[in-house]
Amino acid sequence: MSVRRLLAFLSAIAAAIALAVVLPSSASSAVACATAWDSGAVYTGGATASYNGHNWSAKWWTQNETPGGASGVWADQGVCGAGGGTPPPPGGSCDYPSWVAGRTYTTGTVVRYTNGGLYRATHDNPGYDPVISTWYWEPYTCSGGSTTPPPTQNPGGFPVSEAQFNQMFPNRNSFYTYSGLTAALSAYPGFAATGSDTVRKQEAAAFLANVSHETGGLVYVVEQNTANYPHYCDTSQPYGCPAGQSAYYGRGPIQLSWNFNYKAAGDALGIDLLHNPNLVQSDSAVAWKTGLWYWNTQSGPGTMTPHNAMVNGYGFGETIRSINGSLECNGGNPAQVQSRINAYQSFTQLLGVTPGANLSC
Fold it and tell me: Closest by alpha carbon to 159, among 143, 181, 139, 138?
């Protein structure tokens, strides 16, 4: 064999050996992980996210539904690299430290919440509540041992039964269905699902009492004074009023009004309410979601959201302040305040809990 042929032969053998060494490593490496799933983000059909070491693809619109969960909205796209979440603590257990309100947490920190579930910080935060501040925290499943999983949305069920709902609103408009309300709960899983059983029932009663006041006992779907309709278009907003100047009147359980509120609520819920405000009066679940949006995210003329007021012990009076405090509180309209309080006391009695302190504003 010539020297040239021998060198070529040896070169081929070396290449084959190198390929044999390289191929297993290449084949075993997972694809890159997509951006980590965010419980507060809205995903439309085809959107991707990574969770627990897998890439997932959304089959349809979703928000706050965990990939791999019972909803079936996410399709598993297989294992991905550089993902899978925070490793368990030393020793392989899932014994993470308990969450402490007010303690600073950095992105990636895993804590055990008071409900027994694990949560991972998705953004640095000064000790925000993992159940309330879902932009800063996401549910976390530990793969290093046994753990109590985070509770599903409204563990134990919504604290108001359909029979109790019907008793609260004997003359309600058929548009405001109980099924529409329960379907809307997935948008804000911390609502009426945070704290003790008493707190959960108090929050549900507080929300429904304010809703009852705003809608005359769930009778009115839209604002009755049509003369007000043209006033709810703030033309200074860059997006204007694409549905028409008179299209943003009060609708739904908390009478959503103004173009900027329709846009903000729609953006948060992943629904184009700026262009389609009528969805709030034609789709019961959408209507309830707008009420829950305000309750859980807006402080209005108050200093906190109604949700925070109830779960943090500030009392029913602070929910009134957050909804219509500029007109009713501090002696502005005591009769209206008392109307809300009466409904709240009636509903808490029906649910078998005390109303708590600080009922007035």
Answer: 181
